[in-house]
Write a sequence for this structure.
């Protein structure tokens, strides 16, 4: 065996060992005990399961507004940054979750790599998702880090991915913000819900 052959073989073995160890440390997600998708609605969307029934999270288009004007109107300017917010109509979501501070959501036809779990600020007649925005046209508004909660992938079954917040959510209003589609990354949808906290049974 030549030195070159030995060197290449060593690299190959090291690579295989690294892959094996990585796979061992990061096993593929396994469906939780509640990963029963029987009856899940067909349309693309985000769903929550309550007492055996599927609850559909309603969605609204998230368009950032800057001082009362759509950010799209401000993109003619260049340079600089500012703060903005996307609005969702109504002071509360129609979907209110009690006694479940870490609810499992089912993304049907939506990639978890394109979503953020964001806390909303409640106003009298609407809710806000606050953002930092740049006037550079190639940048979209960014959700504020302190208002984002990480989530964990609980299981995968076909085109359905189950996700769960990595920490308990405080009572309040939230949205799972998603890209509308891979070819429309500037269009964001907010699938809204509320957390009630502990509710007497």
């Amino acid at each position: 065996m030549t030195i070159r052959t030995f060197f290449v073989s060593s690299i190959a073995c090291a690579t295989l060992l690294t892959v094996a160890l990585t796979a061992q440390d990061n096993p593929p997600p396994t469906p939780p005990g509640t990963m029963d998708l029987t009856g899940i609605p067909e349309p693309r969307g985000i769903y929550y399961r309550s007492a055996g029934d599927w609850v559909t999270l309603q969605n609204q288009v998230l368009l950032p507004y800057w001082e009362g004007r759509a950010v799209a109107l401000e993109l003619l300017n260049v340079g600089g940054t500012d703060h903005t917010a996307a609005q969702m109509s109504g002071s509360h979501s129609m979907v209110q979750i009690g006694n479940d501070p870490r609810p499992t959501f089912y993304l049907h036809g939506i990639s978890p790599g394109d979503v953020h779990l964001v806390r909303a600020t409640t106003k009298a007649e609407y809710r806000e998702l606050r953002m930092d925005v740049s006037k550079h046209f190639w940048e979209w508004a960014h959700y504020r880090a302190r208002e984002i909660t990480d989530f964990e992938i609980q299981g995968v079954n076909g085109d359905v991915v189950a996700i769960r917040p990595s920490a308990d959510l405080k009572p309040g209003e939230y949205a799972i913000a998603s890209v509308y589609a891979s070819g429309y990354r500037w269009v964001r949808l907010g699938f809204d819900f509320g957390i009630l906290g502990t509710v007497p049974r």
Summary: Residues 33-197 form one domain.
